[in-house]
Each structure stands twice: as C-alpha cells, then as structure tokens.
Design brief:
By secondary structure, the protein is of the alpha+beta class. The protein contains two helices and eleven strands.
C-alpha cells in the first residue's frame, strides 16, 4: 500500500462517523470517519464493484492495548467480520480487485507481556484465508487518531482527532 499526496480529496463529501463495534459500507462518494483509541479500523475496498467500507472494532478488555483473543472474542469478531466482508464484496469472486488495510491505535506498551495473537492478527489471518492481502499499521501512543476513508476511491489517511482534512493521504493498493 503506497502513500500518496493529493489535493483536497475529501472536499465537499458527506461525513459519516462509524461508531466502535459497527461498520458502514457505501457505493456512494462519502467520507467514513473512525476515531480510534484502543481500537482498529479495517478499510476494505472492492475496486471492481466500486464499493468500500470501514469496520471499527475496539480492543477487548478496555485497557486500550491489544489483548489475547479468546473463544468468545473470536466468535463475535468473526460474525461481524463476515457480515462486513459480505456487505462490501457481495458474491464477488475476484479477490485481485480487493484491497484491505488495518489501522490500529493502542496505548504504549507496559511491562506486562503483549498477547501472542491480537485482534489485528486474527483479522489478517481471516482475510488471508479468503486470498485478500491486508497491510496493517499500529500506532502506539496516548493520543487517539482519526482514520478517514473514502469507500468508493479506496483512499485512507490518518490525522489527529481534531484535524480532518489536512493530513497526508494513503491509497489502498
């Protein structure tokens, strides 16, 4: 996935805030926004269908840090992930036109050990099983981040929580 700089790509688009543990999918030009703090955003774009969506999931345990994936977590996340993928991809079998990126925010690590498999790992493995390549980036800091995604274009970028349109933009590729 390459980073590109562009003009005001989000100018005059309707903004839709995606709440934690929900997703939004659209074939229409709009701007999907997720404010991450101890959470991740999965941006999925089907180039062939011109549809994309953003899935916003909080890390389990309420610590703001990645936690171990339990059986209950696995089951509930996979159900939501499956619904989200079906909403974006439909019955499309052309995985070469599908692009995915996970952007995650976590608090800085502590002396406590990190989990061996996190929610990011779980989602990447599920996408890999479906032959969908997925890059990821985890930002470890105390301040939250805002993820902005244009579902029709497949453009995703990160900016501070109070700064929507003036950051560098990355296009899913």
């Amino acid at each position: 996935m390459g980073v590109t700089k562009g003009p005001q790509l989000a100018k005059d688009l309707t903004e839709v805030s995606v709440a934690p543990d929900t997703y939004h999918v659209s074939p229409e030009p709009m701007l999907l926004i997720a404010d991450l703090h101890g959470a991740l955003a999965l941006c999925l774009h089907d180039e062939g269908r011109g549809v994309g969506g953003l899935l916003h999931l909080k890390f389990m345990g309420g610590t703001g840090r990645p936690s171990d994936v339990t059986d209950n977590t696995l089951s509930s996340v996979l159900v939501v992930l499956d619904k989200f993928k079906r909403a974006v991809l439909g019955n499309s079998a052309r995985r070469d036109e599908v692009q995915a990126r996970i952007l995650a925010h976590a608090l800085p690590p502590t002396d406590a050990g990190e989990p061996s498999a996190s929610l990011v790992d779980l989602i990447q493995a599920d996408l890999a099983d479906g032959k969908i390549a997925c890059g990821s980036q985890t930002m470890r800091r105390t301040e939250g981040v805002r993820v902005c995604f244009q579902p029709v274009e497949g453009r995703v970028w990160i900016c501070g929580p109070n700064n929507l349109r003036s950051s560098r933009r990355a296009q899913l590729s």
